[in-house]
Amino acid sequence: MKAKKSLGQNFLINDLVIKEISDSIKVSNHDLIIEIGPGRGALTKELMKKNCLLFCYEIDTDLKVYLAQLNSSNLHIIYKDILSSNIIDDIKNYQYENIYIVGNLPYYITTPIIKHLINLDLPIKEMVFMVQEEVANRFASLYGTSDYGSITLYLKYYYDVSKLFKVSKECFNPIPKVESAVIKFTKRINPLNVNKDIYFKLIDDAFKMKRKTLKNNLKNYDFNKVKKVLDKYHLPENVRAEELSEDVFMDIANNLKG
Question: Which of 73, 84, 131, 163 is the most exposed place for a label (fewest CB within 10 A)?
Answer without folding.
Answer: 73
